[in-house]
Protein backbone atom coordinates (compact mmCIF):
# COMPACT_ATOMS: atom_id res chain seq x y z
CA UNK A 1 0.00 0.00 0.00
CA UNK A 2 1.46 3.39 -1.02
CA UNK A 3 1.37 6.21 1.52
CA UNK A 4 0.17 9.53 0.08
CA UNK A 5 2.22 12.20 1.76
CA UNK A 6 4.15 15.41 1.21
CA UNK A 7 7.08 16.62 3.27
CA UNK A 8 8.45 20.17 3.52
CA UNK A 9 11.95 20.60 4.90
CA UNK A 10 11.89 23.29 7.59
CA UNK A 11 15.52 23.10 8.69
CA UNK A 12 18.35 20.96 7.37
CA UNK A 13 21.72 20.92 9.06
CA UNK A 14 24.59 18.43 9.28
CA UNK A 15 23.12 17.28 12.61
CA UNK A 16 19.37 17.04 12.08
CA UNK A 17 16.54 17.55 9.61
CA UNK A 18 13.14 18.98 10.60
CA UNK A 19 10.27 18.20 8.22
CA UNK A 20 6.60 19.20 8.23
CA UNK A 21 4.70 16.20 6.88
CA UNK A 22 1.16 16.11 5.50
CA UNK A 23 -0.41 12.70 4.98
CA UNK A 24 -3.62 12.20 2.99
CA UNK A 25 -3.98 8.45 3.59
CA UNK A 26 -7.40 7.06 4.51
CA UNK A 27 -7.22 3.34 5.25
CA UNK A 28 -7.70 1.08 8.25
CA UNK A 29 -5.27 -1.61 7.02
CA UNK A 30 -1.59 -1.60 7.92
CA UNK A 31 0.83 -0.26 5.31
CA UNK A 32 3.82 -2.25 4.07
CA UNK A 33 6.72 -2.29 6.56
CA UNK A 34 9.27 0.51 6.36
CA UNK A 35 12.68 0.60 8.03
CA UNK A 36 13.60 3.70 10.02
CA UNK A 37 17.00 4.90 8.74
CA UNK A 38 17.94 7.06 11.75
CA UNK A 39 16.87 8.19 15.20
CA UNK A 40 13.60 10.06 14.73
CA UNK A 41 11.01 11.83 16.88
CA UNK A 42 7.58 12.30 15.30
CA UNK A 43 4.92 14.58 16.81
CA UNK A 44 1.42 15.13 15.42
CA UNK A 45 -0.06 18.59 14.84
CA UNK A 46 -3.45 17.54 13.47
CA UNK A 47 -5.42 14.33 13.10
CA UNK A 48 -4.31 10.88 14.23
CA UNK A 49 -2.88 7.63 12.89
CA UNK A 50 -1.77 4.25 14.19
CA UNK A 51 1.81 3.05 14.46
CA UNK A 52 3.09 -0.52 14.73
CA UNK A 53 6.70 -0.53 15.98
CA UNK A 54 8.81 -2.95 18.03
CA UNK A 55 5.79 -5.08 18.83
CA UNK A 56 3.74 -2.15 20.14
CA UNK A 57 0.79 -0.40 18.57
CA UNK A 58 0.46 3.30 19.33
CA UNK A 59 -2.31 5.76 18.46
CA UNK A 60 -0.36 8.88 17.48
CA UNK A 61 -2.18 12.20 17.95
CA UNK A 62 -1.24 15.63 19.38
CA UNK A 63 -0.99 14.22 22.93
CA UNK A 64 1.10 11.15 21.99
CA UNK A 65 4.11 11.06 19.66
CA UNK A 66 6.73 8.40 19.09
CA UNK A 67 10.48 7.83 19.08
CA UNK A 68 12.02 5.34 16.65
CA UNK A 69 15.58 4.04 16.39
CA UNK A 70 17.68 3.08 13.34
CA UNK A 71 16.57 -0.27 11.96
CA UNK A 72 13.10 -0.16 13.54
CA UNK A 73 10.47 -1.71 11.29
CA UNK A 74 7.35 0.45 11.29
CA UNK A 75 3.86 0.19 9.78
CA UNK A 76 1.07 2.76 9.67
CA UNK A 77 -2.72 2.78 9.48
CA UNK A 78 -5.00 5.80 8.92
CA UNK A 79 -8.55 4.82 9.84
CA UNK A 80 -9.46 8.46 10.62
CA UNK A 81 -8.18 10.03 7.38
CA UNK A 82 -5.25 12.38 6.90
CA UNK A 83 -2.97 13.99 9.43
CA UNK A 84 -0.17 16.51 9.81
CA UNK A 85 2.96 15.87 11.85
CA UNK A 86 6.52 17.03 12.36
CA UNK A 87 9.54 14.74 12.18
CA UNK A 88 12.96 15.47 13.63
CA UNK A 89 15.55 13.10 12.17
CA UNK A 90 19.03 12.92 13.65
CA UNK A 91 21.22 11.95 10.72
CA UNK A 92 23.03 8.64 10.91
CA UNK A 93 26.38 10.22 10.05
CA UNK A 94 26.09 12.77 12.83
CA UNK A 95 25.37 10.10 15.44
CA UNK A 96 28.04 7.71 14.25
CA UNK A 97 30.41 6.49 16.93
CA UNK A 98 33.63 8.45 17.02
CA UNK A 99 32.27 11.35 14.96
CA UNK A 100 33.73 13.83 17.42
CA UNK A 101 30.69 16.05 16.92
CA UNK A 102 29.58 17.82 20.11
CA UNK A 103 25.93 18.19 19.11
CA UNK A 104 25.78 14.54 18.10
CA UNK A 105 27.41 13.48 21.37
CA UNK A 106 24.71 15.37 23.30
CA UNK A 107 21.94 13.73 21.33
CA UNK A 108 23.53 10.30 21.39
CA UNK A 109 24.05 10.41 25.17
CA UNK A 110 20.40 11.29 25.77
CA UNK A 111 19.13 8.64 23.40
CA UNK A 112 21.48 6.02 24.86
CA UNK A 113 20.08 6.83 28.30
CA UNK A 114 16.58 6.36 26.96
CA UNK A 115 17.48 3.04 25.33
CA UNK A 116 18.96 1.78 28.60
CA UNK A 117 16.11 2.98 30.79
CA UNK A 118 13.29 2.13 28.42
CA UNK A 119 14.43 -1.22 27.02
CA UNK A 120 11.38 -3.20 25.96
CA UNK A 121 9.01 -0.28 26.54
CA UNK A 122 6.68 1.08 23.82
CA UNK A 123 7.99 3.81 21.47
CA UNK A 124 5.22 6.22 22.58
CA UNK A 125 6.26 9.69 23.82
CA UNK A 126 3.86 11.52 26.12
CA UNK A 127 3.22 15.04 24.78
CA UNK A 128 2.11 17.61 27.34
CA UNK A 129 1.35 21.25 26.57
CA UNK A 130 4.97 22.35 27.08
CA UNK A 131 6.25 19.79 24.59
CA UNK A 132 3.50 20.62 22.09
CA UNK A 133 4.41 24.31 22.29
CA UNK A 134 8.10 23.49 21.77
CA UNK A 135 7.07 21.33 18.82
CA UNK A 136 5.07 24.13 17.19
CA UNK A 137 7.83 26.67 17.84
CA UNK A 138 10.20 24.29 16.10
CA UNK A 139 8.44 25.05 12.80
CA UNK A 140 9.51 28.71 13.01
CA UNK A 141 13.27 28.28 13.24
CA UNK A 142 14.25 28.29 9.56
CA UNK A 143 15.56 31.88 9.59
CA UNK A 144 18.39 31.00 11.98
CA UNK A 145 19.10 27.25 11.96
CA UNK A 146 22.59 27.55 13.40
CA UNK A 147 21.49 28.98 16.76
CA UNK A 148 17.69 29.03 17.05
CA UNK A 149 17.24 25.75 15.19
CA UNK A 150 19.80 23.84 17.26
CA UNK A 151 18.49 25.33 20.53
CA UNK A 152 14.92 24.47 19.61
CA UNK A 153 15.83 20.86 18.79
CA UNK A 154 17.71 20.44 22.07
CA UNK A 155 14.76 21.97 23.96
CA UNK A 156 12.38 19.57 22.30
CA UNK A 157 14.65 16.62 23.01
CA UNK A 158 14.90 17.58 26.69
CA UNK A 159 11.12 17.80 26.97
CA UNK A 160 10.43 14.62 25.02
CA UNK A 161 12.95 12.55 27.00
CA UNK A 162 12.63 14.19 30.42
CA UNK A 163 12.44 11.88 33.33
CA UNK A 164 15.27 9.80 31.89
CA UNK A 165 18.81 9.76 33.32
CA UNK A 166 20.93 12.82 32.60
CA UNK A 167 18.28 14.82 30.74
CA UNK A 168 19.02 18.21 32.31
CA UNK A 169 22.60 19.43 32.68
CA UNK A 170 23.50 21.66 35.62
CA UNK A 171 24.41 25.21 34.57
CA UNK A 172 28.09 26.06 34.26
CA UNK A 173 29.92 29.11 35.52
CA UNK A 174 29.27 32.75 34.62
CA UNK A 175 32.58 32.85 32.72
CA UNK A 176 31.24 30.44 30.10
CA UNK A 177 28.24 32.67 29.41
CA UNK A 178 30.52 35.72 29.28
CA UNK A 179 32.78 34.08 26.70
CA UNK A 180 29.74 33.29 24.55
CA UNK A 181 28.54 36.89 24.82
CA UNK A 182 32.01 38.12 23.85
CA UNK A 183 31.94 35.96 20.73
CA UNK A 184 28.63 37.46 19.66
CA UNK A 185 29.59 41.04 20.52
CA UNK A 186 32.85 40.81 18.55
CA UNK A 187 31.16 39.20 15.51
CA UNK A 188 33.17 36.01 15.87
CA UNK A 189 31.83 33.71 13.09
CA UNK A 190 31.51 30.96 15.70
CA UNK A 191 28.83 33.04 17.42
CA UNK A 192 26.38 32.33 14.61
CA UNK A 193 26.26 28.58 15.23
CA UNK A 194 25.59 26.84 18.55
CA UNK A 195 27.60 23.72 17.67
CA UNK A 196 30.62 25.69 16.43
CA UNK A 197 30.55 28.04 19.41
CA UNK A 198 30.31 25.14 21.87
CA UNK A 199 33.31 23.52 20.19
CA UNK A 200 35.27 26.76 20.41
CA UNK A 201 34.51 26.97 24.14
CA UNK A 202 35.25 23.28 24.66
CA UNK A 203 31.84 22.34 25.98
CA UNK A 204 28.69 20.66 24.69
CA UNK A 205 25.88 22.55 22.90
CA UNK A 206 23.25 21.71 25.54
CA UNK A 207 25.56 22.70 28.42
CA UNK A 208 26.39 26.00 26.73
CA UNK A 209 22.74 26.69 25.92
CA UNK A 210 21.59 25.85 29.47
CA UNK A 211 24.40 27.86 31.09
CA UNK A 212 23.77 30.90 28.90
CA UNK A 213 20.06 30.96 29.69
CA UNK A 214 20.75 30.55 33.40
CA UNK A 215 23.18 33.47 33.64
CA UNK A 216 21.91 35.83 30.92
CA UNK A 217 18.18 35.16 31.19
CA UNK A 218 17.54 34.43 27.52
CA UNK A 219 18.60 31.93 24.84
CA UNK A 220 21.73 32.56 22.80
CA UNK A 221 19.65 33.14 19.67
CA UNK A 222 17.53 35.78 21.45
CA UNK A 223 20.66 37.50 22.76
CA UNK A 224 22.21 37.58 19.30
CA UNK A 225 19.02 39.09 17.89
CA UNK A 226 19.01 41.65 20.71
CA UNK A 227 22.58 42.71 19.81
CA UNK A 228 21.77 42.94 16.12
CA UNK A 229 18.61 44.96 16.73
CA UNK A 230 20.57 47.36 18.93
CA UNK A 231 23.00 47.93 16.07
CA UNK A 232 20.12 48.34 13.64
CA UNK A 233 18.52 50.98 15.86
CA UNK A 234 21.80 52.91 15.91
CA UNK A 235 22.11 52.75 12.12
CA UNK A 236 18.49 53.77 11.57
CA UNK A 237 18.99 56.68 13.94
CA UNK A 238 21.91 57.78 11.75
CA UNK A 239 19.61 57.88 8.71
CA UNK A 240 20.21 54.46 7.12
CA UNK A 241 17.66 53.95 4.33
CA UNK A 242 18.84 50.80 2.55
CA UNK A 243 17.14 48.13 4.67
CA UNK A 244 18.34 45.24 2.50
CA UNK A 245 21.97 46.32 2.95
CA UNK A 246 21.37 46.88 6.66
CA UNK A 247 19.98 43.37 7.03
CA UNK A 248 22.90 41.81 5.16
CA UNK A 249 25.47 43.82 7.10
CA UNK A 250 24.03 42.67 10.43
CA UNK A 251 23.90 39.01 9.48
CA UNK A 252 20.17 38.59 8.89
CA UNK A 253 19.18 36.18 6.14
CA UNK A 254 17.24 38.91 4.30
CA UNK A 255 15.24 42.10 4.83
CA UNK A 256 12.13 40.14 5.83
CA UNK A 257 14.13 38.42 8.58
CA UNK A 258 15.31 41.81 9.89
CA UNK A 259 11.74 43.12 9.82
CA UNK A 260 10.37 40.11 11.69
CA UNK A 261 13.04 40.19 14.39
CA UNK A 262 12.78 43.96 14.90
CA UNK A 263 9.01 43.74 15.21
CA UNK A 264 9.43 41.01 17.84
CA UNK A 265 12.14 42.87 19.77
CA UNK A 266 11.12 46.53 19.40
CA UNK A 267 7.43 46.31 18.52
CA UNK A 268 7.86 48.14 15.21
CA UNK A 269 9.15 47.47 11.70
CA UNK A 270 12.48 49.06 10.65
CA UNK A 271 10.64 51.61 8.53
CA UNK A 272 8.47 52.66 11.44
CA UNK A 273 11.48 52.82 13.76
CA UNK A 274 13.28 55.06 11.30
CA UNK A 275 10.26 57.35 11.11
CA UNK A 276 10.00 57.54 14.90
CA UNK A 277 13.69 58.30 15.32
CA UNK A 278 13.62 60.90 12.54
CA UNK A 279 10.63 62.62 14.14
CA UNK A 280 12.39 62.77 17.51
CA UNK A 281 15.55 64.21 15.96
CA UNK A 282 13.51 66.86 14.20
Describe this structure in words.
The chain is of the alpha+beta class and 282 residues long. Among the domains are: 5-138, Jelly Rolls (Sandwich), CATH 2.60.120; 223-281, Orthogonal Bundle (Arc Repressor Mutant, subunit A). 43% of the residues lie in helices and 20% in strands. It contains 10 helices and 10 strands. Strands 1-2-9-4-7-10 form a 6-stranded antiparallel β-sheet. Strands 3-8-5-6 form a 4-stranded antiparallel β-sheet, with no helix packed on it. A hairpin with a 3-residue loop joins strand 1 and strand 2 (16-23). Helix 2 runs antiparallel to helix 3 (145-160), helix 4 packs across helix 6 and helix 4 (174-185) runs parallel beside helix 7. Residues 163-167 have low confidence and may be disordered.
Question: What's the short story on this structure?
Answer:
With 282 residues, the protein is an alpha+beta fold.
Uncertain segments of ≥5 residues (pLDDT<50)? 163-167
Number of helices, counting only DSSP H or I runs of 4 residues or more: 10
| Helix-strand topology string | EEEEEEEEEHEHHHHHHHHH
Q: What is the makeup of the main sheet?
A: 6 strands, antiparallel
- How many E strands? 10
Computed Rg: 21 Å
Shape: globular
Structure class:
alpha+beta
Helix content: 40-55%
CATH fourth-tier homologous superfamily of the domain at 5-138: Jelly Rolls
Order of strands across the main sheet: 1-2-9-4-7-10
Whole-number mean pLDDT: 82
Task: Name some characteristics of this structure.
282 residues; alpha+beta; Jelly Rolls; Arc Repressor Mutant, subunit A; 6-stranded antiparallel beta sheet; 4-stranded antiparallel beta sheet; 20% strand
Amino acid sequence: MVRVRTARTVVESPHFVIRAVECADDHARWSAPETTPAVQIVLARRGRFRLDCRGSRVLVEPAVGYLSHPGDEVRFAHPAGGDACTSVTFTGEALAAGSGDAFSADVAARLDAVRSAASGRPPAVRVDARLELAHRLLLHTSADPGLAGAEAVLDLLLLALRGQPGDAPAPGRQELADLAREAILTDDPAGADLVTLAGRLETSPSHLSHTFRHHVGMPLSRYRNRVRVSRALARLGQGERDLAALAAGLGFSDQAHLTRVMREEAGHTPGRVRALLTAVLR
